[in-house]
Amino acid sequence: MEEPEKLDRIVDARMKLKARFEEKIKHTPSVSDNNPQGSGPPNRHGMPTTPVGQILTTKWPILDLGHHPTVTADRWRLAVDGAVEHPVRLTWDEFMKLPQTNDVSDFHCVTTWSKLDMQWKGVRLMDLAALVHPKENATHVLCYGYDTYTTNLSLEEALKPDVLLVHTFEGKPLQKEHGGPVRMITPQLYAWKGAKWIKRIEFLTANKPGFWEERGYSNTAYPWRNDRYS
Ligand SMILES: Nc1nc2c(c(=O)[nH]1)N[C@H]1C(S)=C(S)[C@@H](COP(=O)(O)O)O[C@H]1N2
Ligand SMILES: [Mo]
């Protein structure tokens, strides 16, 4: 298919998805809460800069299951499948040809550190969704890492414009320790919702807990509600 046609198709599908999820996104707690818990001036989505119980750090700690899989760009693949019309399995080159987004956002880890103003470049999950066309009854995604990690999100969270699959941090390739070559980020939820070394995004028609969610962590993970455990 011609590249411009492909882009038109993504844009069209994206507008439809946006219309379908716009209202739901507006009502998610990290945008609409009128009594959010935290301190400091409003951030980019209107919540206090520092969520309740968090401490700011300038360092970037490393948190994971302890195994850092080596996935070079030429061997990396991303499957986007499940309850979708057009499942895909992308190579690095195909992924890099998708619309690229630069963004600056904050990172809130459930172990109580937050790091502000992180500069990212990557592909919006929304743009990947537009490529595969989620079925009408899709409600959630389950994301998989190459280290066997999994984590779940509702579509109204996953389709927010700041949810990215990032390959670049502060102008440099994302380090392996932080999930390179590609990881997901979820600036409006605790950071465990963003899979490092991401390899698969499965669209689901019902919620399914991931690694930490099965071990007592919250399905929803709202930092401004101190929503850490279920
Ligand atoms: N694949 C994978 N992704 C993961 C994890 C993991 O163990 N494996 N840990 C999560 C947790 S608990 C956090 S807080 C963040 C930490 O990201 P960082 O190590 O880059 O700070 O990654 C999340 N994504
Ligand atoms: Mo975490």
Automatic annotation (TrEMBL):
Domain Oxidoreductase molybdopterin-binding: 68-212
Highest taxon listed in the record's lineage: Bacteria
Region of interest (Disordered), ranges: 22-48
Gene3D superfamilies: Oxidoreductase, molybdopterin-binding domain
Pfam families linked: Oxidored_molyb (PF00174)
Compositionally skewed regions (Polar residues) per UniProt: 29-40
Membrane-crossing segments per the record: none
Name this polypeptide is given: Sulfite oxidase-like oxidoreductase
Organism: Chryseolinea lacunae
Phylogenetic placement of the source organism: Bacteria, Pseudomonadati, Bacteroidota, Cytophagia, Cytophagales
